Amino acid sequence: MLEAPAPVMHMLAFDTVGMRYADGTQALHAVSLAVPAGQFCVVLGSSGAGKSTLLRMVNGLVTPSSGTVCVAGVRVEPRALRGVRRRIGMIHQQFNLVQRATVATNVLCGALPEVSTAAALAGCFPAAFRRRACELVAQVGLDERHLHRRVRDLSGGQQQRVGIARAFMLDPAVVIADEPVASLDPRTSREVLDLLKRQARERGTTVLCSLHQVDLAREYADRIVALRHGRIVFDGPPAACQPSVLTAVYGQVPVPHAALREAAS
Ligand SMILES: Nc1ncnc2c1ncn2[C@@H]1O[C@H](COP(=O)(O)OP(=O)(O)O)[C@@H](O)[C@H]1O
Ligand SMILES: [Mg+2]
Question: Going by CA atoms, what residue is nearest to atom 24 of ligand 1?
Fold first, then answer.
């Protein structure tokens, strides 16, 4: 007898998710999206499209007003939050590092869910975490000299490398990156996205990364999910993200970027 095929494992599953903030703003309308394990999924959209709202639901920073979000089959809800958060790394647009602390301390902060507050305050991290922090710092292209530098003395690109190292500290199943390169110049943006994608590929990490730049989305995404006014207006591979789609994403506003001009010519 033939066995039924195994169901596809979706690492992230948003089911008819809606979000209405207290002031009445409807940020998301019945969004459904399933992201398989290991995918680098870019959420593309202009400012106010609902990207951050969607991403922040994954680790429970925003609670949907309707619908459900599951991570590895576990529903994100108050009693499950601790467990879910251990499996998620987060990378922020403004890096969210402790500016006066060293690179080593910031990277070690990625292990906080596994270390008691008292130990962390005293700077007592287990040796295994210290070794891991050193490895990660090297993997993100910083050298040993950087370990004891204060973050505030680093460039934006270097700070985001620290942010990536911190996010991968507990070898998360999922990394949420909310506009990780919005504060960086184009060249540094590509370096940082290269690095994020490589780290994720090597570990099989699922990435949900929001971007507002179409050319970067087309270059790095396995899949692009475009949001406009809180609705999915495109979901497909980068090659299918043609100018007509971009008009749907950005409305009537022309988007002057090289990839679009090439696609249109
Ligand atoms: N805490 C909040 N209270 C009220 N409205 C909010 C809040 N956060 C976001 N919004 C609104 O929700 C919509 C989507 O915002 P957001 O998810 O931040 O979009 P994006 O990240 O794509 O710029 C916007 O209209 C924004 O002003
Ligand atoms: Mg945002």
Answer: 48
Burial 76-92 (b: 16+ CB within 10 A, else e): beeeeeeebbebbbbbb
**Sheet of strand 10-20, all strands in order from the earlier edge strand to the far edge:** 26-36, 10-20, 66-71, 74-75
Query: Nearest C-alpha to atom 16 of ligand 1 is from which residue?
Result: 50
Condensed to tens digits (0 to 9), the pLDDT of residues 106-163 reads 999 999 989 888 887 788 899 999 999 999 999 999 998 999 999 999 999 999 999 9
Instruction: Note the pTM of the prediction, 2 decimals.
Output: 0.91
Within the chain, all domains assigned CATH 3.40.50.300 are found at 8-87+175-181+198-265
Classify domain 8-87+175-181+198-265 by CATH number: 3.40.50.300
